[in-house]
Write a structure and sequence with these properties.
This protein has about 210 residues and is α/β, with parallel strands linked by helices. It has one domain: Rossmann fold, CATH 3.40.50. Helix content is about 45%, strand content about 15%. The chain is built from eight helices and seven strands. The chain has a seven-stranded mixed beta sheet with strand order 1-7-6-5-4-2-3, sandwiched between helices. Strand 2, helix 3 and strand 3 form a beta-alpha-beta unit. Helix 3 packs across helix 8.
Length: about 210
Amino acid sequence: MNNSFIRSVLIVFLFLVIVSSTVAQSHPSSISLISTALIFNAGQTTVTFDQPLLLTSAGQSPEIQLAAVLAKRAGLEYKLSKLATARDLDGIKSLGLVVGASLKGLGAAGIDMNKEKDRVRELLAEAAKRKILILFLHLGGDQRRGELTDALVAEYLPSARMAVILKSADNDGLFSKICQKNHIPLVIVGKTADVADVLRNIFNPQR
């Protein structure tokens, strides 16, 4: 470990201390974001999202309902559609993709994984045409990982403008590697409840 590396680490640490102090004084409600979340690819974190937000599932896991609760807690204007299609994007400024595969959820929706993937691909393509930013959300932690979910992550995460995940989900570095490769800001939180603070801070006030 050379001196230049140590010097860089110290500079980053001092910067975070100064920023935390400044935010605490000028925006007390925002300090929880700094204390509970780790932000990687920090050079890309200037992105913000506009409201209203459309929340939809990729994989039909129950975390889609949790995402709606967190969005409401954050005070966001949002719409929930588990099986959203291109027409649901009318009037929408941001798309929240809640990723996690659930065979039970797919069965309840009356679709298989292939149909789900086709729907999400078409939705993301239309969002790109309309220049709607995509927020990737993985709220199930390590318990929602698995072959099916990992395939969804690998396919859809590169399309995101920002990703928010639970710390336990990235034990093998899947999310951080994809985000680093594609220069996507990755926000890692320790608890699901912390996501509400993240949403409150990355969304612009409703006009």
